[in-house]
């Protein structure tokens, strides 16, 4: 049975599946995984497909990962997935696993405590890729993790894969990683955000969902110095919920802040409830 964990519970030697539909949530998890690897003296490989290497590097940097110095030192490599999946021809499991095995040995020879890899698995949606090759790769990757020197997070976009493949991906990994969700339904998702630390809210938030909002803010108050409330994907917030967020900011000491990132409609609601009157409250536009 697959265990569901948060990214901070991923340990050396884990082979983990990340299935996602929210690209911001995916990048938050990837950024935390990369940052923890750098902090543990692991060499880190990021294979990307849906984003260019430069765009992924920029996204990681925005989330507080020290990308430029890590790249310069050789500890971090952000590269196009084609360098692993099909460097000289059709993607084959044998070639990919051979390449990764070489990376593990090279990292050990360079004095790193281990090798971390996070990979966009979109290569498997290419016409030249086959389901047997995907299965063979995941089975072999699990073997590479066995001695604890290799840790892998394989990313599967729910919009790019069919349900059968997604089910296989979950079964092929001993663990799945996801954000801690305080509320999740068709209308609203409230979850923990790692980078920058705080809460992510998407959808429509109103007075009927104050309890999970309170839970999320209370957790952030306990864990974080400055609290980031990412509402970039929130379509609506009512005055009751906005007031709760503003009062949370007001409860902070003067040297801590609550920073809300949101679009114009949500920003207007915060202005209506006078959130800006709290010196600890900050608001910034969505990226």
TrEMBL record:
A Pfam family this protein belongs to? Answer: MEDS
The record, for InterPro entries, names: MEDS_domain (IPR025847), MlaB-like_STAS (IPR058548), STAS_dom (IPR002645), STAS_dom_sf (IPR036513)
Q: Per the database record, which ranges form the STAS domain?
A: 199-287
In its UniProt entry, what is this protein called? STAS domain-containing protein
What organism is this sequence from? Actinoplanes nipponensis
Q: What is the lineage of its organism?
A: Bacteria, Bacillati, Actinomycetota, Actinomycetes, Micromonosporales
């Amino acid at each position: 049975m697959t265990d569901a964990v948060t990214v901070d519970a991923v340990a050396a030697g884990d082979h983990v599946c990340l299935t996602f539909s929210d690209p911001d949530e995916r990048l938050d998890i990837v950024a935390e995984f990369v940052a923890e690897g750098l902090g543990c003296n692991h060499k880190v490989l990021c294979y990307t497909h849906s984003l260019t290497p430069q765009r992924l590097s920029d996204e990681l940097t925005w989330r507080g990962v020290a990308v430029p110095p890590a790249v310069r030192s050789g500890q971090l490599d952000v590269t196009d997935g084609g360098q692993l999946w099909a460097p000289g021809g059709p993607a084959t499991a044998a070639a990919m696993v051979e390449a990764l095995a070489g990376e593990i040995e090279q990292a050990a020879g360079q004095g790193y405590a281990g090798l971390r890899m996070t990979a966009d698995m979109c290569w498997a949606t290419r016409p030249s890729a086959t389901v047997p090759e995907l299965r063979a790769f995941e089975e072999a990757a699990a073997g590479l993790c066995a001695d604890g020197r290799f840790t892998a997070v394989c990313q599967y976009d729910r919009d790019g894969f069919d349900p059968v493949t997604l089910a296989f991906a979950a079964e092929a990994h001993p663990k799945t990683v996801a954000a801690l969700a305080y509320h999740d339904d068709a209308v609203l998702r409230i979850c923990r955000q790692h980078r920058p630390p705080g809460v992510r809210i998407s959808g429509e938030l109103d007075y009927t969902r104050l309890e999970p909002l309170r839970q999320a803010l209370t957790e952030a108050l306990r864990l974080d110095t400055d609290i980031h409330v990412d509402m970039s994907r929130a379509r609506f917030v009512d005055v009751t919920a906005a007031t709760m967020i503003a009062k949370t900011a007001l409860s902070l000491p003067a040297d801590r802040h609550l920073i809300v990132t949101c679009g114009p409609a949500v920003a207007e609601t915060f202005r209506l409830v006078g959130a800006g009157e709290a010196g600890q409250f900050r608001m910034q536009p969505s990226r």
